[in-house]
Specification:
The structure is a homodimer.
Chain A lengths: L8 E12 L2 E21 L3 E8 L13 H13 L4 E7 L10 H17 L5 H16 L7 H6 L2 E6 L4 E5 L6 E6 L6 H6 L4 E3 H20 L2 H7 L6 H5 L5 H10 L4 E4 L6 E5 L2 H17 L5 E5 L6 E2 L6
Helix pairs in contact in A: 1-2, 1-3, 2-3, 6-7, 9-10
Chain lengths: 317, 317
């Protein structure tokens, strides 16, 4: 039976904004417009074979043990289907090293497609645990703050990393987000290495209080308070200097009425919040102009908070 | 008209549990059963005269510039009624140096009584700003995490200290709290001096994530998650050693099914949470036994989250 060609199953996993202000390493949200698509089918040979990667300008490894999607799938087979084999093709919709959870999205899409192909029916916790294994290859740490929202959708708080404890928060339906990726790259590993090992206790208290305020704002649907809470004095000061034009862009956005403006992940993608679609479009133009003026023109879009990774092609199990 | 004797107005302000787990310096709640009562009446002589203090074993200063209630009232007169005079009597219902917000409760009760006596009609923010001035005398820092819940009631997050930004959170109506004050004293100033100036970034992240979980749990009315979030790796490790028997008591409470057990304020008062009144009573007995075994027998009670400071005698304005 395994000799008959198996059907391809394609899944999509969204880009994510992580390190949401005071939520460094513990809070992220899923976008809708960008993401990676991965096709998976059962294969005769056990293990994982990555047969094609598109949209990465040849930068990603086909060796499954070095590829985030490959590593996540190998972990899935190891734990849940040790004798199975998978063939995989990856279509990157996300720019690499952008701070939008590119490495995580491939792993999440691959896992959701493979889960369907193998009929495993894994839950969110299990999928995120597997996707984290991919993150370990990508950035040296199995941080779940990108893969959790990419799998679950909406806004996700990682209340605890070990054991994994994810909390799905009320989705801010009326939030509009301008997302702009300047044309420079920031290595996640380098951005992480630049972080302070210790922080002042009072800054730590202020950060926790702001995260508390942010969670409260989500529950109350208070976008103004949500924006007010998006202040990061722990990592933004270090990372701002790695993104030419960031501080200018942030000041301009806030002056133009953004509810908040900060760095997504380790950057260079910069996001700005608004409660209004037209305002978000204006903020995107401001981001475009500021970064272009600093010689790092890139590209952007406006978006809203969206759902998690899902199968995007029949047949479903 | 000012020569006629003016009526006394009495106000009550509740004890508070502050430093709630991950909410060091930013989260507190009001209790119902213990508190300070302060009587205030208008006097002819301008300024503040403290004519009597009961229940303090003679330990509190009558000089208003050295007494938390006096300082708070002087600040009130300075800002809102510069020519007025107040006579004050204080009845301490709260043990001093217990970690239950004793210094703050006197200031809060005094302010609420004086607000009524002077007909000022101040709001919560204004009262908390004044009460903080009292805290500056008591512990060297104008921390609002005791006075905010004592004024506002319920559970209060201090989202920002300057400018003051308080968030009143959903009250956990079904929460029962065993509160035990061992017979030893911890100086707030000494407890604060023992704190680390800097903390590891990853501990800071875990702390913020737990506070986020706690706020989410309050909004969802999930007492189990609330308890799970009450973990403090920043200050408890330092302060636990200042309270004989604390670690034993905590272990025994958790083993007996407490949802959480931690230190209130800078201690030595220890609290344990339950979703059940009978269980809370059993936890109180456990606390009593553990601290007695360690030679620091004290006293305790079971309680629930309650309202804020209020006038407890007619006439109201």
């Amino acid at each position: 039976m395994k000799r008959r060609p198996q059907p391809w199953i394609e899944a999509f996993a969204p880009a994510t904004i992580s390190n949401l202000g005071p939520g460094f390493d513990c809070l992220g949200l899923a976008l809708t417009k960008l993401g990676d698509s991965v096709r998976v089918r059962r294969a005769i040979a056990p293990g994982v074979t990555i047969s094609a990667i598109e949209g990465d300008q040849g930068r990603l490894p086909h060796d499954p043990t070095a590829n985030t999607a490959g590593v996540a799938l190998l972990a899935m087979l190891d734990r849940y289907a040790p004798t199975a084999g998978l063939e995989v093709t990856i279509k990157k919709g996300l720019p690499l090293g952008s701070g939008l959870g590119s490495s995580g999205a491939s792993a999440c899409a691959a896992l959701v497609a493979a889960d369907a192909a193998l009929g495993l029916g894994l839950g969110h916790d299990q999928l995120v645990e597997l996707a984290r294994e991919g993150e370990r290859v990508a950035c040296g740490a199995a941080h779940p703050d990108n893969v959790a929202p990419s799998i679950v959708g909406g806004v996700v708080l990682i209340a605890s990393v070990a054991p994994l404890r994810m909390i799905s928060l009320p989705r801010p339906e009326k939030l509009w987000i301008a997302v702009y990726t300047p044309g420079c790259s920031v290595s996640t590993a380098a951005a992480r290495a630049a972080l302070p090992a210790r922080v002042p206790l009072d800054a730590c208290v202020r950060n926790a209080a702001r995260l508390g305020m942010l969670i409260d704002a989500l529950h109350r649907g208070d976008l103004a308070a949500l924006g007010e809470a998006i202040v990061d004095e722990l990592v933004e000061p270090v990372r701002a200097g790695m993104i030419p034009g960031y501080l200018d862009a942030k000041a301009a956005c806030l002056e133009a009425g953004a509810l908040a403006c900060s760095i997504s992940g380790s950057g260079p993608t910069t996001f700005a919040f608004s409660d209004d679609e037209a305002r978000a479009r204006a903020l995107l133009e401001i981001l475009e102009e500021c970064f272009t003026n600093h010689g790092v023109a890139g590209k952007g879009f406006i978006d809203q908070v969206g759902g998690g990774a899902r199968v995007s092609s029949a047949p479903l199990h």
